[in-house]
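does this look right to u?? S-adenosylmethionine version
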Amino acid sequence: MEYERERTLLIRSLAEQGVSERTLKAMKKVPRHLFVPSIHASRAYVDSPLPIGHAQTISAPHMVAMMCDLLELKEGQKILEIGAGSGYNAAVMAEIIGKKGQIYSIERLEKLAVFAHENLENAGYSNVEVILGDGSLGWPDNAPYDRICVTASAPDTPHPLIEQLKPGGIMVIPEGEGYQRLYIIRKSPDGEVTKQDWGGVIFVPLVGHHGFNPYDSKRG
Ligand code: SAM
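got this back:
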């Protein structure tokens, strides 16, 4: 199969970094080369972010793996993703939650929403719905969510996302401008919210009502 050797080497390297069996199994199945512009397909299994146009990137495989592990994904869950980008992260999560689960992935840039939708369709993922909109407001229509995965860096935790997280749910979110940290936010069964700092990361900015201002050139 095309790119199988490259994908196997990538998975081996992620295994050495301590990624869980569950996430490795999912990433083994997702053809990342179908989620990058064809000009970058030969680099699809290098562990780095790649440009997907419109000044945005597909996240590096180790970052996708890390976020999936931190989210403690389980079969049948309902997930909200902010920042569909290429659709790759959604595809990996879809492999883990299985056909009984559902993902809603919001993207603010129309061309990328179409890109993500087409990539997911070509790769055969039917339980991911890509929605065009401002994910800093969440997506109240299908709330609450078992898990929320934010793939762009916010100035602070958008309160609609906390409200739309189910009791017992987990959210991962990068926050900060320039110097960014990844946070794990947990809502206990009785609604208490805790925030744990996982460490430094680099993401594109979350642009929107509870994100950065699109008209501020420093913030993209
Ligand atoms: N998850 C993506 C993937 O697997 O390719 C990577 C996403 S990329 C690092 C971040 C994405 O967030 C970009 O496509 C960007 O346009 C999008 N974004 C930024 N602000 C947003 C917002 N307020 N709502 C929805 N999407 C947003």
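Residues 56-59, 82-83, 85-86, 88-89, 106-109, 112, 134-136, 151-152, 203-204, 206-208, 211 surround S-adenosylmethionine (CB under 6 Å). idk if thats expected tbh
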